[in-house]
Write a structure and sequence with these properties.
This protein is 27% helix and 26% strand. By secondary structure, the protein is of the alpha/beta class. Strand 17 (293-298), helix 9 (302-310) and strand 18 form a beta-alpha-beta unit. It is globular and about 55 Å long. It binds NADP nicotinamide-adenine-dinucleotide phosphate. NADP nicotinamide-adenine-dinucleotide phosphate (NAP) binds at residues 43-45, 48, 139-140, 143, 164-170, 188-190, 193, 208, 222-223, 226-227, 244-248, 270-271, 309, 312, 314. It holds the Pfam family ADH_N.
Length: 324
């Protein structure tokens, strides 16, 4: 089968380390299932692995891809919960297991015609959701769901700022927060993405770093250095910033005086539990909210897709078809 495999790592030229290889179809271990991947989607995580960030060189080569939707061996339509670990080791929360791994970190990922995962990581795919839509959910949408509802605990009427509107996580956060009755503001470097975010439910969208119409209760941060100071400035006293990523850099000035004087909370967030992924599906069924799919590409064109992601040229998610 064809698989997009990280064979080397380079900070300056990450795509040079990605090869399309012919590899054997994997055989599932006891308690694991074989999944025929109908759709996957790109995440910045794939780029970080190729850059050598957070992925040790001794785990190369590795088939990339963190998101998968497809068929199990019995023909059931499934979505893969991508966090592999032991919930008990995390006090009941697999995302807190110190030894957890996202798909493609220690186990072969989803940019392949087939993958194997623990059977407990399979979630039934509802019939009202397409494979393409389902493949957008496990990482980006699951992360946005946990940031908003588990970590920030937003409630209807809260004011929420989402930084970097065009991102996979950010577009999900805008749609989910709006569906939950929040007043949503967004920032983006791109005028087109700002305009599009208004159609997803944002009340207003401003260029990155510009003043908002009002202070907010919660900021959803995945951009990092480029937006961090703005995120803290936009919070009302007692507000909360939830951070799950730092695309533009991870070491901004901390602005500690503002954090303590304004009594701000800074919360980290990573991934989602299987239960949160199931709750996300229920929310989507109830509200009709669906992912923003920028485009779909066959696996053979994955380099082009990752280039668009690195260049910030995508709006929402790019879906990959490994079996096209
Ligand atoms: N902790 C977790 O579990 C988790 C899960 C998913 C993602 N993440 C992390 O979260 C980050 C976003 O992931 P993603 O998949 O949503 O990526 P993405 O789709 O590529 O989105 C990144 C967004 O960040 C904004 N951005 C990038 N550079 C910027 C800059 N210099 N100034 C202002 N805005 C900038 C862009 O927004 P505009 O183009 O609209 O300005 C872009 O749309 C990544 O670092 C990823 O690794 C973490």
């Amino acid at each position: 089968m064809l698989a997009a495999t990280a064979v080397s790592q380079s900070a300056s030229d990450p795509l040079s380390g990605l090869e399309l290889r012919d590899v054997p179809v994997p055989a599932p271990a006891p308690g694991w299932s074989l999944v025929k991947v109908m759709a996957s989607s790109l995440n910045m995580h794939d780029v970080w692995t190729l850059r050598g960030v957070g992925h040790p060189a001794d785990r190369i080569p590795m088939i990339l891809g963190c998101d998968a939707a497809g068929y199990d061996e019995h023909g059931n339509e499934v979505i893969v919960h991508p966090v592999l670990g032991d919930p008990e080791a995390g006090g009941g929360d697999v995302t807190l297991d110190p030894n957890r791994a996202l798909l493609s970190e220690r186990h072969a990922g989803a940019f392949a015609e087939y993958l194997t995962v623990p059977t407990g990581n399979l979630v039934p795919k509802p019939s009202w959701l397409s494979f393409d839509e389902a493949a957008c959910l496990p990482v980006a949408w699951g992360t946005a769901y946990r940031m908003l509802f588990t970590r920030a605990r937003i409630t209807a009427g809260d004011r929420v700022l989402v930084q970097g509107a065009g991102g996979g996580v950010a577009s999900a956060a805008i749609k989910l927060a709006a569906a939950a009755g929040a007043v949503v503001y967004a920032t983006s470097r791109s005028e087109a993405k700002r305009a599009e975010s208004l159609t997803w439910g944002a009340r207003a969208a401003v260029p990155s770093g510009d003043r908002l119409p009002e202070k907010v209760d919660v900021v959803i941060e995945t951009v990092g250095e480029a937006t961090w100071a703005h995120s803290l400035k936009c919070l009302k006293p007692g507000g909360t910033v939830v951070i799950a990523g730092a695309t533009s850099g991870a070491n901004p000035p901390a602005d500690l005086n503002r954090v303590f004087y304004q009594q701000q909370s800074v919360l980290g967030s990573t991934g989602c539990t299987r239960a949160e992924l199931v709750a996300l599906l229920r929310m989507m069924e109830a509200t009709g909210v669906r992912p923003v799919v920028d485009r779909t590409l066959p696996l053979a064109e994955i380099h082009q897709g990752l280039r668009l992601m690195i260049d910030g040229a995508l709006t929402g998610k790019l879906v990959i078809h490994p079996n096209a």
